[in-house]
Design goal:
The two termini are 18 Å apart. With 158 residues, the protein is an alpha+beta fold. The protein has one domain. Helix 2 packs antiparallel against helix 3 and helix 3 packs antiparallel against helix 4. 63% of the residues lie in helices and 18% in strands. It comes from Saonia flava. Keywords: Lipoprotein.
Length: 158
């Protein structure tokens, strides 16, 4: 009886651990928010987590590269748009050509960000699907209380 309880406890702990590894995605403005075990994950955390799955790792690295490039280009574009606006608010003569270039850079960063989001989503889906196939995710034991002439017992069927 002691061994049965120990085996059952170990099995349930293993199942809980395997299922807790999944990465959840939530659609937010401008992309996705990734969490694992209730903890928010940054892009570098996703890359580190997915090292064990080569296909997912390649996709998340591509997403990380696109995200970095888009952030740099978008940030520069935002600066170039904001500088003339700040100059105008301050009473100076603004160079609106800078604002036009900045708007162009922002427009370039949008598809890069979209590609990063798409690759990140695919990587997480691929990673999660590989967890399901390699873990005891489908293991669903059925427990019954049984009694016979020898006494009462617990039966586990799987």
């Amino acid at each position: 009886m002691k061994n049965t309880i120990l085996t059952l406890t170990f099995t349930l702990a293993t199942l809980t651990f395997c299922n807790a590894q999944q990465i959840e995605m939530e659609k937010v403005f401008g992309g996705y928010k990734y969490t694992q075990n209730g903890k928010l994950m940054k892009m570098k955390d996703l890359v580190k987590t997915m090292e064990s799955n080569q296909q997912a790792f390649d996709l998340i690295k591509k997403a990380q590269s696109n995200n970095t490039i888009a952030s740099i280009i978008g940030g520069a574009g935002g600066f170039l748009v904001g500088w003339p606006i700040g100059t105008t608010i301050g009473g100076g003569d603004a160079n609106w050509t800078l604002a036009g270039v900045g708007a162009g850079l922002i427009a370039i960063s949008i598809p890069l960000t979209s590609g990063a989001n798409k690759n990140g989503k695919q990587a997480v889906e691929l990673y999660n699907s590989s967890l399901k196939s390699t873990s005891f995710y489908e293991f669903k034991p059925e427990f019954k209380v049984i009694s016979n002439g020898n006494g009462i017992g617990l039966s586990m069927n799987f």
